[in-house]
Write a structure and sequence with these properties.
alpha+beta; Rossmann fold; Tumour Suppressor Smad4; 2 domains; ten-stranded antiparallel sheet; about 35% strand
Length: about 300
């Protein structure tokens, strides 16, 4: 029987002990299940990496995008597949992969899942606190989106109770208080093309969203692939046009003050002063220097099987 490690986050907004037992029972008929409740992100990564090294067939993250991010950073570039039981607030990765939103349905899907590989973005940073290496599944950024995550994390109970509305409110607050009048402090070099910016965001998969069912696209294309946007300035009068283009999947490169790169080999950002950065909605600290590179076929994932006849 194939071995499965179930990594659960009991702090996730939709987690209950009864639900966990139901998921273990559903998976136990098809896998040799080992269930763990790590007490820190570092432990979640270490347990996932150890499972991959020990030859587990899959590691299933039961929680939101936070636990998914840390499990991915233990599994990247290994043959062990990622599975997801979504019980978080936004569950962006589960939406991207087409995983059922109901946890018991997601568990049933895993018993007949198709395994495929997807790209990731690798984010390397340097700061006064040292160097850091991260993989991002759907998005990463320095500046505005990291400030949004920082504001959202100041009121975690609002995130649980108000979900997407809380992220929208945090996005507006970050724009009004952190970005609107900020001078450009980021020097961005994308394959030799240089701009100064107040924020840099990258999208790995299309689409992604923190806002419920509202899709966000940094580029007008349906396939996965790294897209990077540098925001040189963002006056309030341009915000409606930017939001409309992101939802409709129209090019943000047509907006004054925005520079968009598709499938770059490498993006390097120097920050003075150091700025907050995030990956997959996880606030990861401050960085003086940041490098983003695409990593094709970096992660094996368990996804719904194709429909009959497709």
């Amino acid at each position: 029987m194939r071995r499965l490690l179930l990594v659960a986050n009991p702090s996730a907004s939709g987690f209950t002990g009864a639900l966990h037992r139901r998921v273990v029972g559903e998976l136990g008929g098809w896998f040799d299940v080992t269930a763990v409740w790590p007490t820190s992100p570092e432990q979640a990564r270490r347990m996932s990496a150890d499972a991959a090294a020990d030859g587990f067939a899959c590691v299933v993250a039961m929680g939101g995008d936070g636990v998914v991010h840390h499990v991915v950073n233990g599994l990247a570039r290994s043959p062990t597949a990622l599975g997801i039981i979504p019980v978080g607030t936004t569950n962006v990765v589960a939406r991207i992969l087409g995983i059922p939103a109901k946890p018991h349905r997601a568990a049933a899907m895993l018993t007949a899942a198709e395994i495929r590989t997807i790209p990731l973005a690798h984010v390397a940073t340097e700061s006064c606190d040292g160097a850091r290496s991260e993989f991002a599944v759907f998005a990463a950024g320095i500046g505005y989106d990291a400030e949004m995550v920082h504001i959202a994390e100041q009121r975690p109970t609002s995130k649980y109770h108000f979900g997407s509305f809380h992220y929208a409110r945090s996005a507006a607050s970050a724009l009004l208080t952190r970005l609107r009048d900020r001078p450009a402090n980021l020097r961005v070099d994308c394959d030799g093309d240089r701009v100064d910016a107040v924020a840099v965001m990258c999208q790995v998969h299309d689409p992604f969203t923190y806002f419920g069912r509202m899709p966000l696209r940094l580029a007008p294309r349906p396939e996965a692939g790294l897209t990077v946007v540098a925001i040189e300035s963002l006056p309030l009068r341009r915000v409606p046009a930017v939001l409309a283009r992101a939802v409709a999947g129209r090019s943000l490169g047509a907006v004054p003050g925005f520079t968009v790169w598709h499938d770059p080999a490498k993006v390097v950002v120097e920050a003075d002063p150091a700025s907050r950065f995030q990956a997959d909605g996880e606030l990861l600290g401050n960085a003086d220097w940041l490098e983003i590179t695409p990593v094709p076929d970096a992660l094996a994932v368990m996804t719904p099987p194709p429909e009959p006849g497709s």
